[in-house]
Design brief:
single chain, about 270 residues, globular
Amino acid sequence: MTTDAKDAAGTTAAGVAGVAGRTVLLAGAGSTAGRAVARALLDAGARVALVSRSAPPAPDGAASFACDLTDTAAVDALVPRVHAVLGPVDGVLPLVGGWRGGGGVAGQTEEVYRALEPAFTALRLTTTAFWPDLLASPAGRVALVSSTSVARPTAGSAAYTALKAAAESWVASLTHGFAHVPAGPGGPAPSAGSTGGAPSGGAPSGDAPSGGAPSGGAPAQSAPPRGAAVIFRVRALAGLEEELARAVVQLWAVSASEVNGSVVDLGTDAARGE
């Protein structure tokens, strides 16, 4: 599903509480975009966990954590650290990234690929570790900042675009996970996550990739989704930090079913509601 930011960031829907009182984890929070998103969330009444390799300064309402987001054990250990200060999280926004490329196909060296790979690793580890929190939350949200190059790849951006495409595929799997939580009272309880594999608690183990029922059984009953995974695509993030920040805040202003699986192009007239 593709939508514009006006659809994904509309006025608060009936019965949707908004981001006030929610806890949102920003992975790679030391960037310009991270600071803009943190300010917007705090201004809207959210609590914010700022995570980067070296703990960034934390304004009032936020807590700062140093963590190597590419290390499985470190990210697993981050979960109880965040819980002890802020409690379970309601949202995860990975902002680890950057661009490297050029030189055509010949320029897509192992060095370039390895320099870009941590962004995907951080996405994978943080969303898996905090997946139980996101499922247990009445309004869990995951947002990925991706690139328009996924739809229009070039030779000089092959490594960058391949990893962005992998990240979008991962987020699409989270979309499926949010949409296929078995119905039941109370939902899953938050717990420390394990980053050893794909997120659990979504589609039942053994499901076909298309989302069919497990072999030998009837399809599991699913409740309406309470969580949502969304992709924001940009041509370049520089100059769009404030627009991204507003769009992130507004993810909690609409129901999960309205935005789960959305791909939002930022930096366009449609995205600004014009």
